[in-house]
Design brief:
A hairpin with a 5-residue loop joins β2 (about 40) and β3 (about 45-50). α1 crosses α2. The protein folds into 2 domains: about 10-70, Multidrug-efflux Transporter Regulator, Chain: A, Domain 2 (Orthogonal Bundle), CATH 1.10.1660.10; about 75-185, Rossmann fold (3-Layer(aba) Sandwich), CATH 3.40.50. It is globular, with a radius of gyration of 17 Å. Helices cover about 40% and strands about 15% of the residues. The chain has 8 helices and 8 strands; from the N terminus they run βααββαβαβαβαβαβα. The strands form 2 sheets. It has a 5-stranded parallel sheet with strand order 5-4-6-7-8, with helices on both faces. The protein is α/β, with parallel strands linked by helices.
Length: about 190
Amino acid sequence: MAKRGEAKELFTASEVARFCQVDLKTIHNWADRGEIRHFRTPGRHLRFRRVDVLDFLRKYGYPVPEVLRQGKPSVHLIDENRDGIAELEGALGDRFEVTSFSEPVDALIAVGRDTPDVVVLDLTGEKLDGMSCIERLQSMEATRHVRIVVYSQQEHASQRALDAGASAFVRRPDPQRLVDTLEALMGTVR
């Protein structure tokens, strides 16, 4: 059970049914048809990640319950420019649990280990091919649910990033727009 102020990350089919005010069987049908992302426990019980429930509720116009708005979503920030990291940590720190990486390999290892709610990355790094990173994270079952937000000056690459699987593109430098985009994606809008 989540502690007060701490975000609950996994929900049962019964909880999702309550959010949508539908029968439990309806949730099982939606899951079987692939309409809502889910996974099964070793005992074959359905479980739903917070971000996937948020996506589903928004897609179909359901209200977002308070339990989904609690806590601070986790953000992994990947930026080889340490000055860029400091700027964003200040902008994001109040609303999100931010873990920053200037070394891309360390960041990718951490994404696989921690599976944050969202990864924010810049496409202009010398050590990391941002497009390949997006495609790879989206192709792997363990990280497919992680949202990726590209924060870059390379606006010409925005459509390519979205096509590769990024959830959003925010033109740099606009830290407030990045915060707004992350809040909307994570369901923490005030």
